[in-house]
Amino acid sequence: MKIKLQSVLRLLVIAALLMLPISLLGCESKNTYIASGRVVYEGNGQGFPSAVLSFGPFGIAITDLQGNWVKSGLQGTITITPAGGGWIFTPANVAISKATDGILIKAKLHEPTSLPTKVGAGRDYSVARKDNGTVWTWGENGYGKLGDGSTANRTTPVQVSGLEGVKAIAAGHYHTVALKDNTTVWAWGHNVIGQLGDGTKTDRTTPVQVSGLSDVTAIAAGFRYSVILKDEGSVWAWGLNMNGQLGDGTNVDRTTPVIVSGLDNVLAIATGTEHTVVLKTDGTVWAWGGNGSGRLGDGTTYSRNTPVQVNGLGNVAAIAAGYTHTIALKTDGTVWAWGDNYFGQLGDGTKTTCYTPVQVKGLSDVAAITAGCFYTVALKTDGTVWAWGVNTFGQLGDGTTTTRIEPSKISSLNNVSAIAAGNNHVVALKADGTVWAWGHNAAGQLGDGTTNNRSTPVQVVGL
Question: Architecture of domain 116-459 in CATH?
Answer without folding.
Answer: 7 Propeller (2.130)
